[in-house]
Design brief:
- The complex is a heterodimer.
- Chain A is an alpha/beta fold.
- Chain A has six helices and five strands.
- In chain A, strand 1, helix 1 and strand 2 form a beta-alpha-beta unit.
- The longest helix of chain A has 18 residues.
- In chain A, helix 1 crosses helix 6 and helix 2 packs parallel to helix 3.
- Chain B has a five-stranded parallel sheet, sandwiched between helices.
- Chain B is 38% helix and 15% strand.
- Chain B is globular, with a radius of gyration of 14 Å.
- Chain B is α/β, with parallel strands linked by helices.
- Chain B has five helices and five strands.
- In chain B, helix 1 packs across helix 5.
- Classes of the chains: A alpha/beta, B alpha/beta.
- At the A-B interface, helix 5, strand 5 and helix 6 of A face helix 4, strand 5 and helix 5 of B.
């Protein structure tokens, strides 16, 4: 049996310092999954839609885990979540909110929109490492992912199951 | 508005499995309280606060639900879809499926109905203890619980 390529983790985070702290922590904790970093909600939307250069799913695979910040320029994390929700091939991908936002209104909205989990990010390197290890242990190590569904090319066709 | 207690609601009909899971939580020396409910109807009654679970002090709302699929009277899927159709805050309680089924149709259905996560029961007690220890750290120590806004 050929060992399959570990799935991609998608990090949607506009703050460059937070993103590099997280990416470094993933590498340090021995995570072999490729990590794709997108800087805002619109980039994420283009990635999910497979627009233009992002259309090659070989190079830009649908992720096995999404880490989503809430405060993003242009399109917020909650708006992105709302857009993703009715799309079946995206809805089944575990999505973890990773934010500094402690206001319960955001938490309620995130859960209502179907976020799988809500984590508070820390600026401290040690805490980030521990958090990333736990994310890896739980979502990559334990959680059973939904089987891959092939997406259709246009939103008007719905999902195509082959 | 009331918040959840550090309580795990375990909905599991098999007494042997329930005992193993509860023992694994104890063995991992985890702080969480575990309340076990043996069937789907009782799970709904507990969460809705119906008799005999109408006293929220004695039967507080859980921070997370561990839900089996094959349950007598009302299946785990029925409990999940009932919970997610609520509009009083209960719909936000995180639900983690804990089942022996690895069938694609069950995994898909669980996510489509709004399960937060899907775990399969491991083969050995040692693996189960390890799994529940990670589960507890993740969901009880790190995950931010939703406020439910129920009165």
């Amino acid at each position: 049996m050929v060992e399959s390529q570990p799935g991609t983790i998608l990090l949607i985070e506009d703050d460059a310092a937070d993103a590099s702290l997280l990416i470094r922590a993933f590498k340090k904790s021995g995570v072999t999954n490729p990590i794709r970093h997108l800087k805002d909600g619109e980039d994420a939307l283009a990635y999910f839609e497979g627009i233009g250069e992002l259309g090659d799913r070989g190079k830009n695979p649908l992720p096995i885990l999404i880490l989503l910040d809430l405060k993003l320029p242009r399109m917020s994390g909650l708006e992105l979540l709302q857009w993703m929700r009715p799309r079946k091939h995206l809805r089944r991908i575990p999505l973890v909110i990773l934010t500094g936002e402690r206001d319960p209104t955001f938490r309620e909205a995130a859960y209502d929109l179907g976020a799988n989990s809500y984590l508070i990010k820390s600026p401290k390197q040690e805490d980030v490492l521990r958090l990333v290890e736990l994310i890896q242990q739980y979502w990559i190590g334990l959680n059973e992912p939904a089987p891959i569904v092939l997406e259709s090319r246009g939103p008007w066709f719905g999902s195509v199951h082959l | 508005m009331i918040s959840t207690e550090p309580l795990i609601l375990l909905v599991e009909d098999d007494p042997a499995d329930a005992r193993l899971i509860q023992r694994a939580f104890e063995k991992a020396a985890l702080g969480a309280r575990v309340t076990r409910i043996p069937n789907g109807d009782d799970a709904v009654a507990y969460l809705a606060g119906h008799e005999p679970f109408d006293n929220r002090t004695s039967y507080p709302l859980p921070a997370v639900i561990l839900l089996d699929i094959k349950l007598p009277r009302r299946s785990g899927f029925e409990v999940l879809s009932w919970l997610r159709s609520r509009r009083d805050g209960l719909q936000r309680i995180p639900v983690v499926m804990l089942t022996s089924s690895r069938h694609n149709v069950d995994v898909n259905r669980a996510y489509d109905l709004g399960a937060n996560s899907y775990l399969t029961k491991p083969d050995t007690n040692e693996q189960l203890t390890k799994m529940l220890s990670t589960f507890d750290q993740y969901w009880m120590a790190y995950n931010e619980h939703p406020s439910l806004g129920v009165s």
